[in-house]
Design goal:
194 residues; Porin; 8 strands
């Protein structure tokens, strides 16, 4: 008798979840019928900055401009500049970066109503930076600068702070060999988008 009751309970549970999924699918189809916003409303600006003073001084500016390609997928690019000074000397690092960001969860409160409104995203980034040859190799040749190419992957949290603005924290890992050890794993970044 218990086996029959368990089978019916399991069947009812599966049917319940299938009905919830099918209702959710209908709402998603209805949402897709909505015309996408114009390009001007999908463009965003922002970036990050960093300040570190002490034995090692590191000042960083990295503005970005981007666009939401889909409601959950954004791409952005921008220049990057760093001033770096340690007891061995000082240097300037510059270049550019581009990234894509996919929002797994746009609003955590819509999944579990706890009043927590942050989002969760995946982040993939490519960065090309020009480094001063003499500073990073330790061999004074007076030669040209060298380029360091780095790919970073990770996850992050996004906290809305306005209608179109957000405060983001990313935890990124360098997945390509960083010959000059520019990053520790994980690289923690904070940026603002508006």
């Amino acid at each position: 008798m218990r086996t029959v009751i368990c089978k019916y309970f399991l069947l009812l549970t599966v049917l319940f979840f299938l009905s919830v999924i099918s209702c959710t699918g209908q709402t998603e189809r209805e949402k897709r019928k909505v015309i996408s916003p114009p390009v001007a409303e999908r463009i965003f600006f922002g970036g990050g900055f960093g300040l570190q003073f002490g034995t090692i001084t590191n000042i960083e500016l990295s503005p970005v401009v981007g666009i939401w390609l889909l409601p959950r997928l954004a791409v952005a690019a921008g220049p990057k500049w760093q001033y770096y000074k340690d007891p061995m000397g000082k240097t300037s690092i510059y270049g550019g970066r581009s990234f894509s960001r996919f929002m797994f969860v746009r609003d955590f409160n819509s999944l579990i109503p706890l009043g927590i409104n942050f989002g969760l995203f995946a982040h993939a980034e490519y960065e090309a930076l020009s480094l001063e040859h003499d500073f990073w190799t330790g061999y004074p040749t007076g030669g040209p600068r060298i380029w360091q190419h780095t790919a970073l992957l990770g996850l992050g949290f996004s906290q809305p702070i306005g209608v179109k603005s957000s405060f983001n924290i990313s935890f990124l890992w360098a997945i390509t060999g960083t010959e000059y050890q520019l990053y520790d794993n994980p690289e923690i970044r904070i940026d603002f988008l508006f």
